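Bug #2210: token dump truncated for Ras-related protein Rab-39B?
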Amino acid sequence: MDNLYSYDYQFRMIVVGDSTVGKSSLLRTFCDGSFSPDPDPTVGVDFNVRIVEVKPGVKVKLQLWDTAGQERFRSITRAYYRNSVGVLLIYDTTNYVSFTHVTNWLNDARQQIEPYHCVFLLVGTKIDRESERQVTTEEGKAFADFHNISFIETSSKSTLYVQEAFALIAREIYDLLTEGHIHVQKGWDGVKTGPNTASSNQNQSVNITQNDQPKRNTCCGS
Ligand SMILES: Nc1nc2c(ncn2[C@@H]2O[C@H](COP(=O)(O)OP(=O)(O)OP(=O)(O)O)[C@@H](O)[C@H]2O)c(=O)[nH]1
Ligand SMILES: [Mg+2]
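Reproduced locally. Full output below:
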């Protein structure tokens, strides 16, 4: 059981994508290890928390915002982008249309998050339904490479690569933090220091100049 009061950093992330691509299922598998074949659609936004270790001895509390894919909730869910340091862009590998919409989700997130710094991860879901696959792994990878973001395929039902997906994005954010590309900043909730971090300097500014952009996964520099 995670001790939710013992961590070094808090990363706030948002999970977006079309309705029924499996956003809530991904979070449920990750956060409590359960899978439902018939969950209710998300209404507005939902919230999950889990502690992960990004490297030995460094604990990060992931604050995970699960958004509704349905269009009628779009104005509500947009409000949650700004304070996020990570965006999981989700599509369903058995639904090609959901893949074609990832560009819109990416552009929408970039618009809302700028000028703050964030990391994207492209996630193709439902790989247990291999015979129904409509989006190849190569197509997913090509999209991610084109946008210079990371990519993974998962199954919430079988749990395949679910832990790895969150470990990947958390580690990328942590690396950018330690390299000085992302900072804790007053008035922005994307990254916060936790109780275990002694030097909680909330007043540093985010450096978002073009020259300081890291190679991958920026919302505002690529
Ligand atoms: N076979 C299989 N089904 C999945 C998987 N992930 C989700 N599903 C199913 O896909 C359907 C939609 O899942 P949700 O997690 O509710 O989708 P969502 O993206 O949260 O949908 P909204 O809340 O409406 O935006 C449900 O019937 C899930 O059981 C998976 O990895 N494998
Ligand atoms: Mg949902």
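Output looks complete on our side. Residues 23-24, 41-42, 66 surround magnesium ion (ligand 2) (CB under 6 Å). Marking as cannot-reproduce; reopen if the truncation happens again.
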